[in-house]
Structure formats: structure tokens, C-alpha cells
Amino acid sequence: MSDEPQLPPIPAVGDILDRKKRFVEKKHSIVKCGACQADFSRLFKAGDFVFKKLTDEECEKCHKSKSLTITEIYSEWIDPKKKS
Ligand SMILES: [Zn+2]
Predict the structure, then answer these.
(1) In angstroms, what is the span from residue 84 Cα to ligand 1's centroid?
(2) How many domains, in total, are found in the chain?
(3) pLDDT tens digits, one per residue of 65-80
(4) How far apart are alpha carbons 35 and 8 in whole angstroms?
């Protein structure tokens, strides 16, 4: 039996910080089409907000414009080094 103290592993604070720095926030807006009722998400664009009407974009599904409304905005953190 050894009396040598077992040092706990060094807390991986640096790791966590590095990871935080490494992650990239990716924002999406969920858009609903008033013409065909389709929901889809697309990349967040500057100026997006919930209930905003997108008069200059067309629906991904039916390709009608001026009928899209943003219903939700969400963001996710992705690791650019990780291949999904
Ligand atoms: Zn549509």
C-alpha cells in the first residue's frame, strides 16, 4: 500500500474556456408561409425579429413572395472543428 496522495486531476477549466471560444453561434429564423402554410428555417439575417414580414424573400416550398412571416428565432452552438 502506498501513502502517496493521489492528486486529483487538474480541473479542466482551460478546456472549457477553449471550447467556449471555439464554439460558434449559429442563428436561425423559422419562417412560415401564409400561402402554403409551410414552415422552414433559414439562416438568421440582420434585422430579423419574430412576427416580421419578409416581403423581399420567397417561400422555399411554393416560391410565392410577400407571404412569409418569422415565427421563431433560435440559435445553436456549433463546433466548427467537429464534422457533424
Ligand atoms: Zn409557401
Answers:
(1) 29
(2) 1
(3) 999 999 999 999 988 8
(4) 61
